[in-house]
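User: Run a structure prediction on this.
Assistant: Running it now.
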Amino acid sequence: MRILVVEDEKKVAGFIKRGLEEESYAVDVVHDGEEGQDLAESGEYDVIILDVMLPKKDGIELLKRIRDKGVNTPVLLLTARDAVEDRVKGLDSGADDYLTKPFAFEELIARLRALMRRGTTELTVLKFADLSLDPATRMARRGDKDIDLTVKEYALLEYLLRNPNRVLTRTMIAQHVWDYTFDSETNVVDVYINHLRNKVDKDADEKLIHTVRGVGYILREERE
């Protein structure tokens, strides 16, 4: 899952980023409305967390612009204003939900999960062949064997399971599992793929994670 956070208070943005990364999300953070609009329009995000009070372009204007451009990504507004008219204005501008500052991180996570359930990103158990991953419990299984995953291994496996039979380039994987500042010259993607293979495929009769030479990786059943 990839989330865009547009928040000018760096302490708040850092708090959100750390918490979301601990939940296995890839997080991009920007601190003004103009850069936020650029990323919202050009990036592929599952959810956008958007502060209302932003420099250069406020959150409401940003929201209207991206909706006019056809960006339908779920948006959770963060606002220090709790007046009814402010909330109505945000929802009427295209927001899917709002959260008033200060907030508990547990509530932020709960609202994000609710938004994902409403959209195309379902929190149902992901399955491919005899491999499964439950986003609600964060448990992975291959056949009757539980698989213990690190935070990044979980995010990587989730991305593969949401895109079965599709070639995923190293850049695509890096952007979705890490973030847009990721150094594409490193071999971290390959290292984590190998870690994941050792847990998912090592003792299995059929291998599911395959290399597409010179391009990236694909989750598919072995061809006869």
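The mean pLDDT is 85.
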